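INPUT
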Amino acid sequence: MLFFRNNHNIKSYILSLHLEPHGYIYYDSSMKIGVYGLGRFGYFWSELLAGKFEVFAYNRSADKPCPENVKRCSRDELLNCDVIYLCVSISSFEKVLKSLSPDIKPDTLIVDTCSVKTYPASVMKSILQKDVSYLATHPMFGPDSGKNGVEGLPLVFCSGRCDKSVQQEWISSFQEFGLNVIEMSAEQHDREAAFTQGITHFVGRVLGELNLQSSEIGTVGYRSLLEIIEQTCNDPMQLFYDLQHYNPFNHDMRMQLMQSVDNTMHKFTDIDREESDL
Amino acid sequence: MLFFRNNHNIKSYILSLHLEPHGYIYYDSSMKIGVYGLGRFGYFWSELLAGKFEVFAYNRSADKPCPENVKRCSRDELLNCDVIYLCVSISSFEKVLKSLSPDIKPDTLIVDTCSVKTYPASVMKSILQKDVSYLATHPMFGPDSGKNGVEGLPLVFCSGRCDKSVQQEWISSFQEFGLNVIEMSAEQHDREAAFTQGITHFVGRVLGELNLQSSEIGTVGYRSLLEIIEQTCNDPMQLFYDLQHYNPFNHDMRMQLMQSVDNTMHKFTDIDREESDL
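OUTPUT
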């Protein structure tokens, strides 16, 4: 069973999708989805996908737990899947893809789930063989924000090297999970993410160093400030570094932020100087 | 009527408070409350107090609107009030008090409403005649946060030079408005406010310079970040300067914040340098 759909091609993959009379799509139950990486997100993502597909998950070390509805598999079994979702850290993405690439079968679809998009898209384009398809996605949630279900949560979908109809099927499939699918280019994602996600994580880490406490005299604004720390400092530090480093627009964001900090700080240096001159 | 309770003393003021059988306090309806300053907060505060007291409001210029239930008055009429709330900017507080002080009648109670506390408390202590009482308060709300009522909103109450029983009456009175009265020393307020209100306003102004927009791919954390801007940048710039300048603990907060920004920024300078060395 596990090897049943080995070496199928894109055409058979598309044929495995059927449209019911009212437009509801279901997938050939024999289509196998692989997930590389059982970290916090990989665990969550594979468990979600297993609600609809037959899902196999591979992790380099065997110590990570695997969801009950997902089959833990070997590297070879992963490479026999029709679609492989890569759920690895941004900084290990290139290394992982390079190690997999020689063994990826033609017509396999590789999908990344990184929180930056131009970098993994360009890595996939340069490393993957021409007969391997790829898509770039950013599921903007995880086990914390999705703990009560993923209904309405955003997933950014960047078109890649992949048959249009297959892309459309995946979009529909994500929508059936209740996700809010947002289509944009990888560059558009990163440009916008620098001044949303990037700045939030940066500010969160800055504030996280200050050991701020909840306070009886905390205002609504202060509670939002604590919320930022909570939303960013629980993520692994590696994610923070990777977000800043692999989004090409984050450097500019940091420079603008630093300039604004300097401008604002300078106002008080001036006032303090005027005071001491009096 | 307006001059009826002229020159009454603290004792008569206390006697004007009556305890009903079930402990409910009501005030002598002839007790006159004055409000100096009809800015956004003075307007809001005088209107609130007028729900319980006879309130007179004075503003240096006549162009500011006055709530319907409040009587606009002259400077002399204001000085005939039993209690005078000062609703002026922190930076004009000393000047206003110096100009009023020679004409403040003995046994008048002066109450400040500034967003910092050690500074106005020390100004009142040094400027006011010994026979004039004072209290320092920080109503931590305004027309925006209190637009649907003040129930549960915090008011910081710092004991001043004032008869204990009068202080207790005011605390009870604020509680009857539904306010959450928090008693603490002026120093404790400022120390805590530096790392709640002070840092929030600083971060809000830094972010406010960056022209951030709401975004389809904005996360929960990013929405909190936009919330901080909204909660701080709508206030007058003068309040921001005053908060930073007149809270003696805000300088230290800014230094710690700057250090944390530098530490966090430095991490990426190091990474960028390592990259370019490769």
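end of record. Chain B has two domains: 10-184, 188-261.
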